[in-house]
Amino acid sequence: MNSNAIPPNQIILTGDRPTGPLHLGHYVGSLKNRITFQDQHTQFLMLADAQAFTDNMGDRDKVRRNVLEVALDYLAVGIDPAKSTIFIQSQLPELTELTFYYLNLVTVARLERNPTVKEEIRLRDFQRDIPAGFLAYPVSQTADITAFKATLVPVGADQAPMIEQSNEIVRKFNTNVGQDILVEAAPVIPALGRLPGIDGKAKMSKSLGNALALSASADEVSKAVKMMYTDPNHLRVDDPGQVEGNVVFTYLDAFEPDIAFVDDLKAKYRRGGLGDMVIKRHLEQRLQALLAPIRERRAEFAKDPVEVMRMLAQGTDKARAVAAQTLSEVKAALGLNYF
């Protein structure tokens, strides 16, 4: 489902693994939509610290400290804790208990066939040394989604199989207990897709060293744009240039609202007569205008980390109350309401 076609008054669950500050790829892929969603829907934003442990158990402090960093990014871009419930995953034991029950509704073979899981295992070169928690991530994600009876889950196109498997578990549970306790969810996939890194070789990722953080300084923005991959065959200004695969134009498509202006730049670049530095200068101006106020708001919120954590505590309490109600219904349906 495209974000432009969402019916009103939906329950939306989304979030991020707190393994580092958020970057421009997150902004394009999800943060812009979340700002809109919070005025139209019931939105839960999860800091998935427990899930981050599936491949960060050896660097637990990184996960802990980045809970605050990601929360600061949320606030800086305009996510309002009065409109969106922001919570910390590990502080909801109800999610762990739901995961335990759902594990009985899926086989190891089915988990291994999940295309998203298979690709993530390949990228991390786990081979057969796969942490069990990592392999079972689709089950954990099902607990996250169903705890809030979310009807929509914003994800990248590569994550759609995760929602499909979550819905399989929902259907199996409901069939097993003979009641419609859990709710299926639909994926919401951004129209633009995944933003490439500034090197043009992979998705934007801090671990790959090709990301531009939302908190980047003006000098860091300028340096990143100058390093961006364009067309290696566009050696002289008069040479015809290729737009497809040109990272600068990909970013202009993502961040320049004047579509006609970008189309005109593309036409000139293809004909020849437009230099790389000209298009990079346009892009830098747009990124500096976008990130400067975000950076300033972030710095203000960062002055009072105690207040930010208090906000997270309030959101976590609210989210836990919702998850506890769902868990109560699940246990009753399973006949686990002994007393």
Structural class based on helices, strands and sheet pairing: mainly alpha
Number of domains: 2
What is the fourth-level CATH superfamily of the largest domain? HUPs
Side by side, the strands of the main sheet go: 1-2-3
Family: Belongs to the class-I aminoacyl-tRNA synthetase family.
EC number: 6.1.1.2
Keywords: Aminoacyl-tRNA synthetase, ATP-binding, Ligase, Nucleotide-binding, Protein biosynthesis
InterPro entries: aa-tRNA-synth_I_CS, aa-tRNA-synth_Ic, Rossmann-like_a/b/a_fold, Trp-tRNA-ligase, Trp-tRNA_synthetase
Spell out the key features of this protein.
339 residues, Rossmann fold, Tyrosyl-Transfer RNA Synthetase, 7% strand, 2 domains, globular, three-stranded parallel beta sheet, mainly alpha, two-stranded parallel ribbon, 5 strands
Characterization of this structure:
This protein has 339 residues and is mostly helical. It folds into 2 domains: 3-195 and 305-333, Rossmann fold (3-Layer(aba) Sandwich), CATH 3.40.50; 216-300, Tyrosyl-Transfer RNA Synthetase (Orthogonal Bundle). Helix content is 54%, strand content 7%. It is built from 14 helices and 5 strands. It has helices spanning 24-37, 49-52, 60-77, 93-102, 108-113, 115-124, 132-135, 137-147, 160-177, 218-227, 247-255, 259-271, 276-302, 305-333; strands spanning 11-16, 42-47, 84-88, 152-154, 186-188. A 3-stranded parallel β-sheet has the order 1-2-3. It has a two-stranded parallel sheet with strand order 4-5. Helix 3 packs across helix 13 and helix 4 crosses helix 8. The chain is globular. Belongs to the class-I aminoacyl-tRNA synthetase family. Its EC number is 6.1.1.2. This is Tryptophan--tRNA ligase.
